[in-house]
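hey so i finally got around to running the thing on that chain from the lab meeting. sorry it took forever, my laptop kept dying and i had to restart like 3 times. anyway pasting the input first so we r on the same page abt which one it is
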Amino acid sequence: MPSMMRVFSTILLSLVLAGCNALNPLRKNEISCQTMKSDLPWGALSGLSSDTRRENRLYAVHDHNLSPPEILVMELERTQAHIIDSIPLIKAGQAAEYDLEGIARRQEDGFWLASEGKPGRKRPNLILRANAQGQVQEEIPLPSGLSRNAVKAGLEGIAAWGSGTKERVAVVFQRSWKDDPRGQVKIGQYWPATGQWEFYRYPLSARKGLGLSSISFLNDGSALVLERDNRPFLKARTKQLYRIFLPTTPGQTEGHYPLLNKQPFLDILSLYPMVCGNNGKLEGMTTTPDGKIYLVADDDGDGSARLLRMEIPLTRILHQNAQNVGFLP
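ok and heres what got predicted. didnt touch it at all, straight out
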């Protein structure tokens, strides 16, 4: 009997591997997922951003599993992702010490970056403004009243929208903090022109085991957030994109943390083909003006990070809902 079971298991595995694409056939206008390979070894990727001026340009950062912190410049060619430059992050003329979890290319020039804090090590959660050469020009901490409730899982993603006095920066928190109701996590917005912060609560799909890892603005000013568990594919239960609408100007929350309304946009697991592999957990996500979504699957530094591409008709995103701001009652 044991030998028969081994034979049956071998046949079943062969059928699955041979026909993995058949398990999830793709039709017109559905999402395609393709593993992107790099010509250079890279790993521990935690944040991703597109370039509004160049459709084939992406920027990535890695977390503390690789050091020192740097900005990776990627050039995309069909099924290849070429790392063409590495920009070290410099603070006051020296290599900086940050745990980078998010990156956003600014419309004007340079970058916004999110550095996750470590309360036990007295390392604060920060958003950083850096120029195109990687020089840190500004460190912006979270409000002190908020930071008192921090846990070891802090800032995990960042996005930027607008320019000049209308520029705003959005950040997502990986897990619930001490002052969050169970099953909710914070999203913050910062207005550089005035130095104002506002925070909102986001309702997770389960009361525990889930969090946010990335945020990206769409062409209409709404945003996609990546809600997920920490499990790799085949073991994962939740890898979901939701659409949210954030206030465009400060002063709309009246000192409290309103609960955001979220709209289901894409269940990644239901469309994920097995040929993309099972390594890593989704960390970074970005959208491009021509309607593509890119994601990175983090490998915690073991050299098997993946860059995944999904193609979605942009009209499907922009016409789902015309409202500007959405809070739950």
